[in-house]
Amino acid sequence: MKIEILMLKEDNERGIKMMFLSLEQLQKFKLNPIRTDYEIVYETEVKEQEGTALNISVVMEGLYERLNRPDRPNRKKMRSMSVGDIIQIDGKELFFCDSVGFKKISFAGTGKLVLKDGKENLEKGK
Q: What residue stretches are annotated with the YodL-like domain (predicted)?
């Protein structure tokens, strides 16, 4: 399984403004990240062990812990993983690192972040 970590770009005001915000905070401030606000900063492969299926939640929690240690990979080139970052699995599934846990998301045809409950954007009532 190929895993990529996407973080908001730090070279523009828009990315900096949304960095470290939970889904609730993005909604409160009426901000909606789009796919081009993010860049892939880390890639890894996770192998399934024979006879056992991978538990995605366990993999994501382990990755979060690993990318927050002082000896994390790429520590000189990237910050530690935090709220607002995205885990992409096999180029298909996307999970937003929220203040508690991970929320399944996608990017709509417009490129806007969409919660998997079908909301087109993060504003209440839409």
A: 3-107
Structural domain count of the chain: 1
Phi-psi region of 32 (alpha: psi -120 to 50; beta: other; left: phi over 0): beta
- Owner of token pair 């990755």: 63
Percent of the chain with pLDDT over 70: 89
d(CA 90, CA 104): 14
Helix (H) or strand (E) segment spanning residue 102: strand 102-107
Over residues 96-122, the pLDDT tens digits come to: 999 999 999 999 888 899 988 655 455
In this structure, how many other beta carbons lie within 10 angstroms of the beta carbon of residue 95? 19
- Could you list the residue range(s) of the whole structural domain that residue 35 is in? 2-115
Q: What is the pTM of this model?
A: 0.87
Are residues 32 and 120 in contact, defined by beta-carbon separation less than 8 angstroms? no
